[in-house]
Structures are given as structure tokens and as C-alpha cells.
Design a protein that fits this description.
binds phosphoenolpyruvate; eight-stranded parallel sheet; alpha/beta; binds manganese (II) ion
Length: 364
């Protein structure tokens, strides 16, 4: 059972809910706080034998906004009919239903010059979110594994210089989180990092627990490429269950030759499903879904076409590979767009989003 308090309820009001819960045997209250823009919302989750617990006594408390019985599934990330979408602010950037973000950047950090070219282009076009891979999980041990911790000082410095506030950065081991935190601190918190869990680690439960045990950095969770959506949602629940609710759920295609010639079978039809089942902001990654920069007869890259599918289905975040010189990229060059396409992409995103919102209005 989830008891949501009115925003900015007092400590005494929260204590009253906990005291009432304590009257029922076999029920443990757990408190979760969600800090949004200008308001903090607390939830008390009753865990245990809650079947016999009536909702009315809680509803009668003045400070309670709603009381919802939830199934065991997706207790924290689940939408449970009445619970609102999750919104959070990180390093001055708000994530939620009304906020569109394009994380455009390098699949893998290679040179300082390329990072600076990307950051400068982002600033020129008013983008404050990017992707920069420092730790790369590669299929072969002989492929470029990413520059690791040694590139973090200059990546963070350049992000700060060009006003980039959030970098999506994959971590494949708990040690990477400490390295990122140390480098952020040393940079004077020049920027922020959203910890990315890659598709290959979607069920690395120990890693999921570690990113969930810290609350400072939000998490971009990528669905597993070879598991069901339900399994991926349960994996995201691991993160929240450890205490970090600030998760963006990213679709990136699933592994199947039925998607050929694209790298993966594009799964953006799942956007509304994820939005119905969970309250998390949804992201689409067209680059790893499509895996190639081919252009359709209409002049648009396949990558644009699948972004359109994701946005028209209600996604609010796009994670996309760019590279100043894709032919020199050390990882995933064939799917990277060149920087001259960035303003066109932003216009496209804006127009498709507007079309989506207009159609939603017609239905209301
Ligand atoms: C990536 O975003 O660089 C990446 C490796 O993606 P995925 O985990 O979706 O393959
Ligand atoms: Mn990649």
C-alpha cells in the first residue's frame, strides 16, 4: 500500500501516518521522499501483510493525498493507476513528462579535440545534455575499451566550459561510480553525470543495487536486449528498491535477426507500455537500435525515422551518437551522425513532439 502525502507535509504529519501504520501487526512502514522542483513529496509504503489494513483511516488524515493498494510488481517504479509521473531535477535540469532532452554526444570518448567539438556544437544549439562513454563494454576483449578514468578530468572540464549540465555515462563496475564522483569533485562540480546501465548489464543485480544505493546521481537504465520487457522493468525496480527513484528508462532495440538490416529490432512501440506500467520518464536510443547511418529515399537517415517513432509514441528523451569524424571513431562510428546534422535533429525532435502533443489534445 502506498500512502502519498500532500507536498511539503510536515514531519509531524508524516509521523502521524507512521504511527497509524504501527497499529497494524506485520506491517512495516518505509518512507520515500521525492524531491521535485519547489516541492518535496513523501510516500509511506506499507510492506508486509497489508490485506487486512483498511485504507480509510489513512485517507482521513488531513495530510494524505492518496492511498493506493499496489501489487508486488514494480512497487516503486509502477504507476499503480493513481500515482503521478515521476519528475526530478538534477544539476538544474528537470526530467519528467513535460521535459524533452536530447543526449547527443560521443559513443566513446577518444580525443580532447573531438569532445570539445561536440560540446561547442551543443552549446551553440542550446543543448545541455550529452552522452560520453568512458568505460565501454565491448564484445571482443581486443576492441577499444574506452579511456576510463583518465579522460574524466578533461571531459568534465570541457562540459563545464560549454555549459553542459548532464552527461550520460555508462558504468560497468561499482568502482567507476567512485572514479566519476572523485573526478566531478576535482572539477569543482563543473557538470553532472547520469549513470548509464548498459543493455549488457541490465540484469547485473549487484551493479543495479550499487547505483540504487546512492541517490545523488540519476540513472539511465537501458532495457536488456535479450530479455522480456517485464524482466527489464523488474531490473529497474532493483535500483529504486535500494533508494534511488531518479531513473530514466531507455529503449534501445532487442537482439533479433528479424530486425535485419538494422542492428537490433526497434522496440519503440513499447514506449506507451512503459509509460502505462511505470511512472518513469522514457528515453529512446535510435543509434544502438538502428546501428547504421543509412539514409532513406526521402533523404532522412533511418535514425531520424525511428526517433520519430519513439517521440510520436510519447518518449521524452533521446540518446544519440554523434561524432565530428565518424570514420575515425573507435567505437560505433557507422551509426554516428555528423555535427552538421545536430540543428536539423533538434528541429525534427521539436516538430514531432509538437505533433504528438497536438494529437493527445484531440483525444482528450
Ligand atoms: C552505449 O550506449 O554506448 C551502449 C553500449 O549501449 P547499449 O548498452 O544499449 O548497447
Ligand atoms: Mn555504442
Amino acid at each position: 500500500m502506498i500512502i502519498t502525502l500532500e507536498s511539503n507535509a510536515s514531519k509531524e504529519e508524516l509521523d502521524a501516518v507512521i504511527a497509524l501504520a504501527a497499529r497494524y501487526d506485520g506491517v512495516q512502514p518505509k518512507v520515500y521522499t521525492f524531491a521535485g522542483e519547489g516541492a518535496t513529496v513523501s510516500e509511506v509504503h506499507l510492506v508486509g501483510n497489508t490485506q487486512a489494513v483498511p485504507t480509510e483511516p489513512f485517507e482521513e488524515l488531513g495530510s494524505v493525498r492518496s492511498v493506493v493498494r499496489v501489487s508486488k510488481k514494480y512497487r516503486l517504479i509502477g504507476r499503480h493507476d493513481k500515482t503521478a509521473s515521476h519528475q526530478f531535477v538534477y544539476n538544474g535540469v528537470r526530467f519528467g513528462d513535460d521535459d524533452m532532452h536530447v543526449f547527443a554526444g560521443l559513443c566513446a570518448v577518444d580525443t580532447r579535440e573531438h569532445v570539445e567539438q561536440v560540446m561547442a556544437a551543443l552549446q551553440q544549439h542550446g543543448v545541455t545534455t550529452t552522452r560520453m562513454g568512458a568505460y565501454k563494454p565491448r564484445t571482443s576483449p581486443y576492441e577499444f575499451q574506452g579511456l576510463g578514468a583518465k579522460c574524466l578530468p578533461w571531459v568534465f572540464e570541457l562540459a563545464g566550459k560549454y555549459g553542459v549540465r548532464v552527461i550520460a555515462m555508462e558504468v560497468t563496475d561499482a568502482r567507476h561510480i567512485d572514479e566519476i564522483q572523485r573526478a566531478l569533485e576535482a572539477s569543482g562540480r563543473a557538470t553532472g553525470v547520469m549513470l548509464q546501465i548498459g543493455t549488457r548489464n541490465a540484469q547485473n543485480f549487484e551493479l543495479l543495487k550499487v547505483v540504487g544505493q546512492q541517490r545523488e546521481l540519476p540513472v539511465l537504465f537501458k532495457r536488456g536486449m535479450g530479455i522480456t520487457l517485464e524482466e527489464s522493468l523488474n531490473a529497474a525496480e532493483y535500483i529504486a528498491s535500494e533508494g534511488n527513484p531518479n531513473i530514466v528508462f531507455c529503449l534501445r532495440g532487442v537482439k533479433s535477426h528479424l530486425g535485419d538490416p538494422m542492428r537490433n529490432l526497434v522496440d519503440f512501440a513499447h514506449v506507451p507500455v512503459v509509460r502505462k506500467l511505470t511512472r518513469l520518464p522514457v528515453c529512446v536510443d535510435p543509434s544502438h537500435s538502428v546501428g547504421r547511418a543509412d539514409v532513406a529515399p526521402d533523404g532522412l537517415p533511418y535514425i531520424f525515422h525511428v526517433i520519430g517513432q519513439g517521440l510520436i509514441a510519447g518518449a521524452t528523451n533521446v540518446l544519440i551518437d554523434f561524432h565530428p569524424k565518424p570514420e575515425t571513431a573507435l567505437c560505433d562510428g557507422p551509426q554516428a551522425l555528423t555535427l552538421d546534422k545536430l540543428p536539423i535533429l533538434l528541429t525534427y525532435v521539436d516538430r514531432v513532439r509538437t505533433a504528438y502533443l497536438d494529437v493527445c489534445k484531440l483525444y482528450r
